[in-house]
Amino acid sequence: MKQLVDILDSDLTMSQSKQDNHIPAIHIRDSALLGSFGGTLMPKPKEYIFDVANKQEFRDWYLTAKSQTIIINDMKMNSLSQNALSPMSYMCHEFMKPPSRDKDRLEDNIGKPFVFYCGLHSSPEDEFYGAEGILRSFIIQLLEAYGHKIDLSFLDPIAIQELQAHYVPRLQSLLEKIMYGIGVGVVFLLIDGISWYERDAQIEKTTMVMSFLGDLVEKMEARQTGLILKPLITTTGFNRRARMWFPNAIELFM
């Protein structure tokens, strides 16, 4: 498994010094940035986050034992905003904290959240920029959490080469196989600020990856494997593309 993580963690186009800034370290950095950002939020934006969490649509998505996506359209932000983080980013950060012992929480003891902040990886120079960065990040996070359950013997030399090249269809296939290998549980995939990857240079890959994720949610629900997959997507303004990617998603407009 470590060899696979190292492969996904590298970028053939990046210098060795940049490669050393690996995904686990970046997750720690991202979390620290979100913590600092939260400290700058005024009471009103924090109330806004509380309002989201208490919406019936959010609770339905969160508590129901069903694979389903929720799209949160942040109507207070627009697609031209240059702010890497928003109150919705901080909400995702709060979601990542260890669960309380609230008997309501669906994820207690069996579920785990994983997150990717598009706004923090919005530069083409970033090692994890773009839709393939989302896939690589989630795959590594999932392997770190569930690697002891996953049989990776199906990966042949061609597959390894394609993963090293960050070939999107191969990354998608690996993510799907990991999902089927997890067994019983709940997986929350939080993608904050997908609007960052809807610009001309990225939209084709973003559409490919988001549509794949939408299809995977439907597959997991139809097959009833024991794993519940719950993506949460935040976006700026009203996002028509997100509705096409996830036609059966719950939508919130805040």
TrEMBL record:
Transmembrane segments: 178-197
Assigned keywords, A-Z: Membrane, Transmembrane, Transmembrane helix
The protein's name in its UniProt record: Uncharacterized protein
